Amino acid sequence: MNISQIKTFLTLAECLNMTETAARLNCTQPAVSARIQGLEETLFLLLAAELEDGHAAHRVVHAHDGRAGAVAGGDLLQG
Question: CA dihedral in degrees (48, 52, 58, 60; nearest 10)?
């Protein structure tokens, strides 16, 4: 787990959109996906789930573990 993964997750938790997250962090959508997947594998948690609605933007919802992770991650970066 690294700071880049945490910042990516918190940005994704805020905007709930992979494409917008990538734009805010000045990276690509595949980079966002890779960071989230790496964080999930490190923590053995499902943090986000993509919605399959046929739209080009990759919208996400918080998985159960992701809601708690967003709060803890925000506290970690602020503290």
Answer: -30
